[in-house]
Amino acid sequence: MKEIRFENVWKSYGKTEVVKGLNFTIKEGERLILLGPSGCGKSTTLRMIAGLEEITSGELYMNDRVVNDVPSGKRDVAMVFQNYALYPHMNVVDNITYGLRVQKVPRSETRNRLDAALKMLKLEGYENRLPKDLSGGQRQRVALARAVVKKSNYFLLDEPLSNLDAQLRVSARKELVKIHELYRQTIVYVTHDQIEAMTVGERIALMNEGKLQMLDTPENVYHRP
Ligand code: ADP
Ligand code: ADP
């Protein structure tokens, strides 16, 4: 199962505990939102799944296997960052396909995945542009395309829409849900925005001060009597 399971996971920076005993399961193929106020440990939790932060104690399982010591490059994850983290000197095509070149995916397969991603994310015609010559919405779509072409089973997003204006955010949410309905990866999506959580999430994990407070559907999180 391409699920993610936290068993008593703690994370400290020095003496400061920022994640305090997480116990929960993210189901295979679901869109799970990590929601909570700034500083509550959402990014740290996501980065532990990505393999970008070490786990201080406890066990993190992915696909029924403890991955605490598995490096990021071997975790079958694709990540989209808040600032997109595009390579400024690479054009759109090179940004999108960079990871596939590193993985030595054959050229024809790379071409197919690239063409599909350019089409789906409406980036045709922008292939040779550098990031600085794209709008915010286009940069965000390049970052999504770069993650999509990896065809990873785990799709991790850290406030991916927070740099967009309100109108673009609405269309980007729809794009994301559409991508997920095609591929059904396991999605973990960090946000502090309640509206975003309710429109993108199938379930919401509510965090506060390093702990999980509630894990339920948007309806049950927000419409409890
Ligand atoms: P969120 O994503 O919910 O805003 P983070 O996971 O980014 O929260 O951060 C949780 C806490 O951990 C914050 O108090 C933050 O200041 C602290 N923190 C994050 N990264 C580091 C680090 N590298 N060193 C020390 N403290 C950190
Ligand atoms: P969006 O509505 O997607 O945010 P903008 O209104 O920012 O787009 O830009 C409108 C058009 O101008 C887009 O097609 C974009 O490709 C183009 N564009 C934006 N910034 C630049 C730039 N620095 N150089 C060339 N073209 C640009």
TrEMBL record:
ABC transporter domain ranges (all copies): 4-225
Example GO molecular function: ATP binding
Single GO BP term: carbohydrate transport
GO CC aspect terms: ATP-binding cassette (ABC) transporter complex, substrate-binding subunit-containing
UniProt entry keywords in alphabetical sequence: ATP-binding, Nucleotide-binding, Transport
Protein name, per record: Sugar ABC transporter ATP-binding protein
Species name: Robertmurraya siralis
Classification lineage: Bacteria, Bacillati, Bacillota, Bacilli, Bacillales
Residues of the whole record sequence present: 1 to 225 of 376
